[in-house]
Amino acid sequence: GENVEQHPSTLSVQEGDSAVIKCTYSDSASNYFPWYKQELGKGPQLIIDIRSNVGEKKDQRIAVTLNKTAKHFSLHITETQPEDSAVYFCAPDLKKSSGDKLTFGTGTRLAVRP
Amino acid sequence: DGGITQSPKYLFRKEGQNVTLSCEQNLNHDAMYWYRQDPGQGLRLIYYSQIVNDFQKGDIAEGYSVSREKKESFPLTVTSAQKNPTAFYLCASSFNRASREQYFGPGTRLTVT
Lengths: 114, 113
Known about the structure:
Chain A has 114 residues and is mainly beta. Chain A has strands at 4-7, 10-14, 19-25, 32-38, 45-51, 56-59, 62-67, 72-77, 86-90, 93-96, 99-102, 108-113.
């Protein structure tokens, strides 16, 4: 996506291991940083988000960390399970002349090997 | 059940025909959005609407049109002017434009031959 980079593009981990996906954005004025999970043939599902006044947020096995100075935020999944296999998208809001818009990264395909 | 529905799940059309994709939500959300997703890519914004009877172009509006006559409904028409219409189309809604959290429907896969 425009001014949004996501790495890696593919990630394969053993069940039980951790997975980390990083999203870099260009707009220092961004203040909302969500992560979406998309399973095959379905719409994306919001799994966790963070706002710029917070550095880290955790929800059971998933967490998001934000480094506003470096303009990147990361998704952390611990104790991965086969059902975590999906494509993950970051979508920071970028300030545009037409208004704030979520701008989606190109996605990370996560495969969890049983 | 509250949520967003899109129909049909699969749609096939011949080149040169207009086609309308349906999106309905019963979440009482003010804002609605249409995105296009191509293989291996992220989502790109086509149109969005913050309130009934109002809508704005997104990043790739050319060849598309929308209407927002009812709060619950935001249909998207893919016109014959859209040069490459085959794609996965996703509708989303949020409580309002400022709330940021968007919730997506299951999508419609459109194939034009």
